[in-house]
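Final report, closing paragraph on structural work. Over the funding period we assembled a curated collection of sequence-structure pairs, and we close with a single example.
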Amino acid sequence: MDLQLTRIFVKVVQNSSFSKAAELLKIPKSTVSKAVTALENNTGTKLLLRTTRSLTLTPAGKAFYDSCVGPIQTLEDAQRSLHGQDSIVSGLIRITAPEDLGSQVIAPTIARLGQTHPALNFELVYTDEVLDLVKEGFDLAVRIGKLTESSLKAKKIGEIVLVPVASPTYLRKKEKIRGPKDLENHDCLTLNDPNLISKWSLKNESKTALLKIKPRISSNQMTSLLNMAIAGGGIALVPKFICRQAIEDGALAYALPGWSSPGLPVHLVSPLSVSSSVKLKMTAELLFTEIRGALNSK
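Its predicted structure, as stored:
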């Protein structure tokens, strides 16, 4: 099998486009199309389903891509190394992550990495949707919650815990909170997620409590709930990493010290092994370290 045909196929999938792959490889689009057709003919296997608007991998095509993308990246990096190590740490890395974790932790981390390696470019897409990393051309994703079974490479970073917080002014004005059940009588600010909008699960070192809340305000964004709590709007159940600074500054206080939600797992996910590329390995390791540090900070 011609290795160049495989390389062209990988570039088409990575870029979800024959035109973009041709531009990247500096060859005519017709050559790219013929290469993929030749690869399918040589293997006797349909790899891509093509329409005028989209490209979709067949099951066989996806399995072949997953097997080839790592070795192709390794060969390209080895070739670049002949011209100096700096050329390896260059190019575009596309990352998707949940909005709050992205803006609070990932954005400043990527900014620092960009200053250290000016030849690196990044595209960050913040969304709570689970995107198809291969189809949409992402190199890395940070995902919160239980992962579904897939061929993606995943590494657990840690866990997010949610804590009930409120402004000191709100807590002084309202009925004193002595235990979890007291929260049911307070103005609750909650994520409009089916698992949180009407019930909160909390635990301490020895007990658990399931609360039926009546949300005063719900939102699809944790940072919004945080800001409403700071403004005295009520008690918000938010990740510890986004409210830590406000608590240190005195703008917020723990409404129920010692109590938090059960942990939600956080994973770093990629379509291929991060060790297959120097730039990917470096970015993944830094993100892992910074996110883990943020999640584990007291």
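The chain has three domains: 3-81, 89-159+264-296, 162-254. The two ends are 55 Å apart (CA to CA). We thank the funder for supporting this effort.
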